[in-house]
Every structure is written in structure tokens, then in C-alpha cells.
Amino acid sequence: MNTRRNRRGAQALGGPVFAGMPVFADMAGAVLLLLGTPLTMLGSVAMAAEPESESPRDLESPPALAFVEPQLGVSREGYFTLEWSAVDGAVLYRVRDRADEIAYQGVATKSFQSGLSDGVYRYRVEAIGDDGQVLATSEPAVATVKHWGLFPSLGLFAIGAVVVSGIVFVIMRGRYIEKQWIEKQIAGGDDHASSLPTLNESGDQS
Amino acid sequence: MTSAEMGAEGILGLLIYSESVDAGRILSQEAGYGMLLLFGLAWIGLGIWWGRRATSYDGFAVAGRNVGLALGTATAVATWVTSNTTMLAPQFALQLGIWGALAYSTASFGLFAFAPLSGRIRRLMPHGYTAVEFVRRRYGRLGSIPFLIISLFYAMTWLISMAMAGGKLLNALSGIPYEVGMTVVLAVCVLYTLFGGMYAVIGTDFVQSIIILIGLVVVAIAVLLHVDIADVHHQLQDDRPMLLSVLFPAALMALFNNMLFGFGEIFHSNVWWSRAFAMREGVGPKAYCLGGLLWLPVPIVAGFLGLAAPALGIGVSQPDTVGPLVAATLLGTGGALLVFVVVFCSLASSIDSLLAATSDLVVNDIAEPLAKRVTGNRASDAIKRRWSLFAIIGLGGVTWCAAYPNVGTLATVLFFAGPMVGSCIWPIIGGLYFRRSSPIAACASMVVGTSLGLVAYFAIGWFVASLIGAATSGVVFLIGMYLYPDDFDFGLLSDSPGTPQSGGGEEGGPIDPNGRGVMVGDIPKEGETR
């Protein structure tokens, strides 16, 4: 069976996302995204409007079926949503990728694709009638996946680890000091919140 | 069943299958309305029954401050298992793979981390009601204004996302129109919270948590019986390889981001503070730890549903409904009913908690200080109780108006609050443990952390916003504490709100040991240790 994994070798623009991608290029990419295309970061990649196309099929007046926006932007997270126009009489839509494999089947007029490696992906959508006949086929939509670089991602991962470690340290240290103090107060028969200890009192500097 | 195998089943089978998955007609509308009516009446009845004990404002707002371990644990679990857990955890897994499911489960670490804080909060403020009250007394107006804005924004965002989730889920599962489902779920929660306050919330949470946990165990077992994990792995490896990648860049960034979002949500939100005040002394730390342990596997189970969708050949049109649809598709009508009940319970347990906790904020931190300024008198218990009713109805109304248009995806709505709550982490833990934490440090860290977190949200994505917010606010907080140190007396927090405070300071404001009636740390005094 021709799997998507096999096809991806030919489709991919580059190797794995973390191989040979300079940090500076990633940073520049982030700046460009900041300045130019903030909306692409919100999850789904928008597609641009598709012009009507002439084809032999037009002579038979098939129902119009087109992706809402056939040119996708660059997805940095490996997921995007394909959306297409509804066709009268269609009871099912089937999205096929470049190798003609089914990427989605359902009655909705959009499909969520995720977990994709770096590469360029092309999709067509078919509208299916109640007798199983293909009522219409769209022109392809093209999606590009280019993941964030590994080094900036690992950098943010490390920052997260440091921040979480700091929070846990403060809480655990504070809890330890407070517990010691409470035990001392209980042993001395005194328990009043007004003199509850802080990290400063035990010599720790904030 | 793989996509290829599905393709061989013939068009008729596909039509039936796909219609059931996408159009959400697994459960009939009649069955959906029946369940809605049954559970709606049950929650309202139980709420009224439990709420009969709420004779005083203390009873209504903090359940008499006498909640035990079983109820405390149950309310922590039920509140934290939201509809976002059942919808966003599978979405995370479908978007970010294994890391995504793990990232969502790290939200339980927030409960573990809050466990010791809850004990300290209870000891420091035995008469307290809200998180904003702590910040107001600890940092003064400089700290409490940004904190109140963040708290209200977060509470309303969460409330609205819950109401929207209710409408979307009931629609996806049974075809009940979004507007109807959303309205009924919200109205039921408003009604029983209105009658019973925190007693009703915690009582219904207990029943809801049991239903949720039993339901999830049944779903997990049933899914494992229906799905071959090796097939899921094989399918993902072939079609969606990044979902299994250890070095998935966006997922790596999301891991600590989600953990910090969870920390920020729990540390700052009055939902959790009001429970800390409501639990008996010594109960909070144990209840939050147990709650975290019980909650930890929930998003992993839910996340697996998202990962299983491609292997099952289930076409996903909206990622935030994949979990319930996979469960309901696999388990048939019985499964759909179970999912419906679990979803309704998880929605109700979060919405009621938010309504109760946010109404406390409105009464104690907005209405009462304003009334005190106008009349010069402290509001009586009866008046505060009445204000609570108005606040709950008002919050329900505002939520309904915002949720009705059904704008935005759940993740987008919820994660917009991420950097805001992330920037509250350090002011809260610093305020609880450090004398030197000052109003300037707290205010600056919240403002800078929120601002830069939001920039990161738009420049990079939701999966780094909380991380950037928490990291930058931590740096600013430390610098602020170093440059403008305070010397706070924690004993001042234990005063009852009704007790006259020394120093002639503004009512409810922070009072320093030397009788300064303004915000501690604002006035530099030579030679004074702050």
C-alpha cells in the first residue's frame, strides 16, 4: 500500500525540522511572523480565495466545488484546516491527498489535518451524491508545513523548566520552614498567625 | 479500522458512519432533551436541598469553613475536570501528539503546588473570602487593581468558554441547537448556585465527581477494548508522524507553557481560594493533593481519544469535538449517553464553581468597598447575601450574551487568558512567603508579564504565551523586590474584615506594622526596613 509516509519523502521540502535549520533563520522567521502574519499563529491556516477555473467539465455544468482558500500559508505547528464550499445534493465529502489517499470523509465542509512533517501538501475534495457518484471535484489546495526550529523550542523548554523549578523551590522551601515553625510553636504551646514565618526570617533572602 | 479498510466498506456504510460522526446524530434530540431535563432537575433539586444550610453569608460564600476531606477532594476534582478537559485534551493530542496529552495532564501539577499554599492561605486568613482580598490587603490598590482585572477577565473567559462548550457539545452529541443547549446548561447552574451557594456547589460537585470518574473509567476500558494500540501507533507513524515525535518543536514549547498556565489558573483564581477558605484547617493540602492524583490520568485518557481518531478513520472537522465524538462513536448509544452525562457533569461542576467564586469577588471586592465608601458602613450579612444573588444572576446574563454568538474556538478563547494568569504566579507565591514582596514589584510583574505574554501569543502562538508571561513576570518581580523591598507583617492578614484595623488606613487596605495607612512600600522612609 502506498502510504503517506512513503510519499512524504518526495513531498518534503527539507529534512526533519531540527536538521540544518539555523537558529537565526528561525528567529528571523519569528520576527517576520510577528510583523506580518500574526493571525496564522492562532491555529488554523487560512486559505486565499480561489478564482473560477475553466475546464471541460464546465460544459456539463457540474456543481461548483472549491476550497474557500486554496493557497495555505505556512503552518509552523504541522496542522491546519481545509474548508470548501457546500454542493447541493452532496451527502458526503471526500478529501484526497496527492497520492489519491483519503485524508478525510464526512458530511462537514471542513477537515482538520495534523501531525504533518515539513513539506508541501496538496489536497482535492470530491462531493459525493447519495448514489455514490462523484458530483464534483475541486481544484487542489496547497499547504506548506515548516515547523519551528528545534533550538529555539528547546530554549523555551529550558526557560519553562527553570521557571517551574523556581516556583516549586519557593513553595517547598516555604512549606518546610513553616512546618518547622509550627511544630516549634505547638511544642511551646503557642499558635498565632501573626508571627507566621517567612523565608526572610529563616535567613533566606527574597 | 484504517482509512483504507474503511474505503473498502462501500459507500452506504461510509455514509451512515460519516453522518453519525460528523453530524452528531449518535444520540437523538429527544434523548438529549430527556437527559438534559433529568439532570437539570436533579442538580437544581440537590442544590436546593444542600443549600438549605446556607443561612448566613459565611455559609453561602464559604460553606461555613468546615468542608472535610472527602467533599474537599471531590470538589477539587470536579471543578478541574471541565468540559475543556474532555474537549481540549483530545484536541491537544490531535494537534501536538503525545507531548500534547502529557502537557495537558501537567495541569494537575497546579493542584499539587497549590496544596501547601492552601494550608498557608487558611492559616494566614482564617476569615478571608477571596484571592483579591488577599492581594488588596497584601499589596494595596497598586497590586489589587491589575489582579482584579485579570481575575475577572479570566473568570469570565472561563465561564463563557464553558457555556460555549456546553452548547457545542450537546449539539455535537445529540443535535440539540447550540443556543438551546448553552442556555439550559447555564440556567441550571445559575439556579442551583443561586439557591445554595457554596454548599450547593460542593455538594453537587461530590456527586458530579463520582459520575465523571466512573464514566471516564468506563470509557477508557471500552475504548481500549475497541482499539488496537499497535494499530493506532502504526497509523500515526504512517500518516501523522509528528504526533509521535519526541522532538516536535511546538509541543516542546507547549509542555511547560501548559504547566505554568495551570499554576497561574489555580494560584490566582478565586475558585480555588474560596475552596481553601471553605475547607477545615488542615484539610486543604490533603484534598488538593488527592484531587491532583485523581485528575492526573483524566487528560491522558481523553487525549488518547484524539490520537485514536485517525486510526479509526474518523474524519475530524473540528478538533475540539474529537474526543466526545470518538467515545460516542465507539460505544454506540450507551456510550453516547455516558459521554453526555459526563460532559454535563463536568460543565456543571465548573460553571457553578465559577459563578459562586466570581460572585464572591463582585460582592467582597467591588460592591462592598464601593458601598463602604458611599455609606461609610460595612454591609451586613443579609445585604451581602442579597448582593450575591444579584451578582450570580448578572454573571449568568453576561455569560449568556457573550456565548450566544458562538465566536472563536475554545482554545483561542481560553488561552487568551494564559499570559495574564501566568503573570500572577510570582506575586501570589511571593506575597504568601516573602515579607519583601512589595506592591510595586507585584504590579509591575503583572503588567509586564501580561503584556509580553500577549505579544508572544500573537507573535509565536498560544503554546508559549503563559510561559513568556510567567518568566518575564518572575524576572520583573525579583527586580522590583530588590529595588523596592517591603517588610510586611503577615499577622495583619489574619484580621477579620469586620475588625477595626490599626493605623487608620483605608478599610480593607494593607496596613503596615508602623501604622502607615497607605500602601506598604509606597513611601520611602530613611532607615526603615521595608
Give structural notes.
The complex is a heterodimer of chains A (206) and B (530). Chain A is of the alpha+beta class. In chain A, 30% of the residues lie in helices and 21% in strands. Chain A is built from three helices and eight strands; from the N terminus they run H-H-E-E-E-E-E-E-E-E-H. Chain A is elongated, with a radius of gyration of 28 Å. Chain A starts with a helix and ends in an 18-residue tail after the last helix. Residues 1-58 and 201-206 of chain A have low confidence and may be disordered. Chain B is 75% helix and 0% strand. At the A-B interface, helix 1, helix 2, strand 4, strand 5 and helix 3 of A face helix 1, helix 2, helix 6, helix 7 and helix 10 of B.
What's the structural blueprint in terms of helices and strands?
The complex is a heterodimer of chains A (206) and B (530).
Chain A: H1 4-11, H2 23-36, E1 71-75, E2 80-83, E3 92-97, E4 102-106, E5 110-113, E6 119-128, E7 134-137, E8 141-145, H3 150-188
Chain B: H1 3-7, H2 11-22, H3 29-51, H4 57-62, H5 69-80, H6 83-105, H7 107-124, H8 131-174, H9 178-226, H10 229-239, H11 249-268, H12 270-278, H13 283-295, H14 297-311, H15 322-375, H16 381-403, H17 410-415, H18 418-422, H19 425-433, H20 439-459, H21 462-483
The oligomeric status of these chains comes to: heterodimer
**Rg for CA atoms of chain A:** 28 Å
* CATH-derived topology of chain B: Sodium/glucose cotransporter
SSE order of chain B in H/E notation? HHHHHHHHHHHHHHHHHHHHH
Q: Which CATH-level-2 architecture of chain B?
A: Up-down Bundle
Provide mean pLDDT of chain A, rounded: 71
- Low-pLDDT runs of 5+ residues of chain B are 1-24, 500-530
Largest sheet of chain B: none
Mean of residue pLDDT values of chain B: 83
Overall shape of chain A: it is elongated
Q: What is the CA–CA distance across the termini of chain A?
A: 63 Å
CATH class of chain B: Mainly Alpha
> CATH homologous superfamily of the largest domain in chain A, by name?
Immunoglobulins
CATH class of the largest domain in chain A: Mainly Beta
Could you say which structural class the secondary elements and strand pairing of chain B correspond to?
mainly alpha
Helix content of chain B: over 70%
Largest Cβ-defined interface: A-B, 74 and 87 residues
The rounded distance between the terminal residues' Cα atoms of chain B is 67 Å
Secondary-structure arrangement, i.e. CATH architecture of the largest domain in chain A: Sandwich
The fraction of residues assigned to DSSP E strands of chain B is under 5%
